Amino acid sequence: QVQLVESGGGLVQAGGSLSLSCAASGRTAMGWFRQAPGKEREFVAAISRSGTITSYGDSVKGRFASSRDNTKNTVYLRMNSLKPEDTAVYYCAAGSYSYDERDYSYWGQGTQVTVSS
Question: Which stretches of the chain are assigned E, i.e. beta strand?
């Protein structure tokens, strides 16, 4: 059982930045997904177990960055130049380096990110 605890969500204005954290009970490749009301869950980012390889969804590429602190088993999602369209519940997921949510076995509780216009 891998337990994930997310933190860092909140309310920011468009153009601002926010950082999310996901503390895991073990070291694993991880992904970030988001889901806005009325929309399908969307791939945001993935990071390899070592942290040396990352992938990003087209809608966030160039604005978001994922990193990790391997000594703490914590993965971060740095969100810059936020847009109202980024408003969603953000989830971290563990167990795969993939853009497909079906490849993940464990999920965090989600954290709300709201970007005002």
Answer: 4-7, 10-13, 18-24, 30-35, 42-47, 54-56, 64-69, 74-79, 88-94, 106-107, 111-116
Q: Any idea what the Cα angle at residue 105 is, between residues 102 and 110, rounded to 5°?
A: 90
Tokens 């740095």, residue?
Answer: 78
Q: What is the pLDDT of residue 14?
A: 98
- Residue 102's φ and ψ, nearest 5 degrees, are -70, -15
Phi-psi region of 64 (alpha: psi -120 to 50; beta: other; left: phi over 0): beta
What is the tens place of the pLDDT at every residue in 53-92? 999 999 999 999 999 998 888 999 999 999 999 999 999 9
CB contact at 8 A, 20 and 88 = no
Q: 93 to each of 10, 25, 107, how far by Cα in Å?
A: 19, 12, 4
Task: Please answer whether residues 22 and 88 qualify as being in contact, where contact means their C-beta atoms are separated by less than 8 angstroms.
Answer: no
Measured between alpha carbons, how far is 10 from 23 in angstroms, rounded to an integer?
A: 17
Record the tokens describing residue 1, joined without a space: 């059982």
